Amino acid sequence: MKLKAPLVIALVMVSLHAYSLARAEGHGQGRAEGRSEGRGQGRAEGRNEARPNLPPRPAPERFQAHPPGAHPHGPIVRPHPTRVLTPKVVKYGDRKWRHWAHPEFSRPVYFWDWAVIHSVTCIAEDSYGDQYPVTEETFEGFGLVNMTAVEDDALDRCAAESGGDPSCYLTTCSSF
Fold it and tell me: I want to staple 173 with a disulfide (CB 3.0 to 4.6 A). Which of 25, 81, 83, 122 is the partner?
């Protein structure tokens, strides 16, 4: 009889924990797919019309540390000073630069709290080391599938403003 109350409390705690984990996983998946729960659902869908033919991004793989070795893009210290151009702030979906048909590459997977992000900045770099940052505002429902458009805008700017440098690549993206 004395074990009945602690057993009931333990079972309730376990079921609440399992429920909260399942809800958190479901909420994270909805955010990653660009959907939001509840209000504002129509706004998020309307903003994704700029690039309707993009496939959804795959789920992230388990994190593994990089093997020791050289930087994949050559030496980090360059023989000349690099330029970081003025960031361009654009609205999500507005095309400022002609789309560059860049080579396909493995897209980064961001483990961000999508609900608190206001803006995203992505930076592309050309072969000379010059950097081309692009900042875009987010919206309710913004998630991983929307990052492709922001990354592509940085790459498009790099290709357009570097004189068509075919070796532009995405260096980083950050959020605030």
Answer: 122
The structure tokens listed for 111 are 């483990």
**Is pTM, for the whole model, over 0.90?**
no
Closest by CA to 143, choosing from 50, 24, 22, 47, is 47
Give whole-number Cα distances, 121 to 11, 41, 144, in Å.
Answer: 45, 24, 14
pLDDT (tens digit, 9 = 90+) per residue, 126-158? Answer: 988 899 999 999 999 999 989 999 999 999 999
* Domain residue ranges in the chain: 33-53+80-175
Q: How confident is the model at residue 77 (pLDDT cuts 50, 70, 90)?
A: low
Rounded Cα distance between 139 and 127, Å, is 33
Using pLDDT thresholds of 50, 70 and 90, give the confidence band for residue 29: very low
Kind and range of the H or E run holding 173 = strand 169-175
CA distances to 70, 75, 115 from 22, rounded to whole Å, are: 41, 44, 18
